[in-house]
Amino acid sequence: MSSRAHRSELGDFLKARRAELSPQQVGLPETGSHRRVPGLRREEVAQLAAISTDYYTRLEQGRIAASAPVLSALARVLQLDDGQREYLSELAGKDATRPRRRTRQTVRSSLQRVLDDLRFTPAFVLGRRMDVLAWNPLAAALVTDFAQLPAKHRNYVRLLFTEPHMRTLYADWESVARTSVALLRHEAARYPDDQHLTELVGELSVRDTDFRQWWAEHHVANQRIGTKTLHHPVVGELTLDWDTLTCTNDPDQHLVTWTAEPDTPTHDRLRILASWAAQHTDTTEPTRDTHTH
User: Which residue, among 159, 221, 134, has the nearest Cα to 184 in the 3D structure?
Assistant: First the structure.
């Protein structure tokens, strides 16, 4: 992606964010006049950010790059959260110098050892573009048998939109899927020339109407913790807290763990699922992605 294309992406993001705000939300008086488009007008954003309307217009059109002070002002005016501010900064700071081809990503041995030791905690390692690099047997039992998938299909976002059982596994699939799209959008800002990510977005945009619509909304997220309710076909309902731990030596690898409060039905059901997984896991199958591109 060229720097011009990246500026265009920044402009689309700004337009999407101003469309979500009303004059009242930013302290502007209601004039009562009819608005042709929802949200704030360009001149209103420019006024609040103390820049000229012409400057802001050219910024939205991808014709110029923004300075750090202007970005800070726009982030304030558009009421961006921390994840959106980081995304805005990523878009403004990237250029076309990053190489298009990246070395194949494999799980770090230290993270693999952690996975191997977690018997009663579902866990997996996510890499760039949310590829699943490694997993433990309980994660496979909870989510899907990753080993049975082609390596190029072991991507968490892709699973959410292409595997039918994922829509029934999550009690609130739409919320989970929307968040995953927002996380992937953040990845796209960090690695704008990632060919495989571009191909993934293209494939999912063609295959799924929801993905295509949510991707076009330009929402971003940098969520690292949360709680999810799952309806598992073997053990029933599970309420799990998930946490993301980033590898210090490789910030592109994240250990995701799913845990339950002690002395709860979910805590007991995880142990039942672990016992079930031990009986059904083929020990010859790898628990890591040895062919990740």
Answer: 221
3-93 CATH pick, 1.10.260.40, 1.20.120.450, 2.60.120.10, 2.40.40.10: 1.10.260.40
Read off the pLDDT of residues 52-70 as tens digits, 9 standing for 90 and up.
899 899 999 888 888 888 8
109-280 folds as: Beta-Lactamase (3.30.450)
**What's the pLDDT band for 283 if we cut at 50, 70, 90?**
very low
Torsion angle, CA of 188/189/191/197, rounded to 10 degrees?
A: 10
- For the stretch 237-282, pLDDT in tens is 999 999 999 998 888 999 999 999 999 999 999 999 999 988 876 5
Distance CA 256, CA 220 (A): 19
Give the helix, strand, coil percentages of the chain, each rounded to 5: 50, 15, 35
Domain boundaries, the chain: 3-93, 109-280
Backbone angles phi, psi at 124, to 5 degrees: -150, 165
Instruction: Output the CA–CA distances (angstroms, integers) from residue 56 to 53, 138, 152, 266, in the order listed.
Output: 5, 51, 41, 51
